[in-house]
Amino acid sequence: MKIGQKVRVARILDRLSGDASDKVGQMGVVKDYKMTDGSGVGVVVAFNDNSSSWFFEDELEGRR
């Protein structure tokens, strides 16, 4: 995933946060990277409603 890339939230795998799960199916833009609990890197996605949330790369589908 690259900063500025459009992505769609495909699923939520490991978190029970209602805010993140509300974004499944929505399109957003990758804005930044986030270090997770040591098991990898997540990406911060910004949405049209001015909200943002972080996701693991395998939770997102990239658009070119």
UniProtKB/TrEMBL annotation:
<dbReference type="InterPro" id="IPR021291">
    <property type="entry name" value="Tsr0524-like"/>
</dbReference>
<protein>
    <recommendedName>
        <fullName>Cytochrome b6-f complex subunit PetP</fullName>
    </recommendedName>
</protein>
<dbReference type="Pfam" id="PF11061">
    <property type="entry name" value="Tsr0524-like"/>
</dbReference>
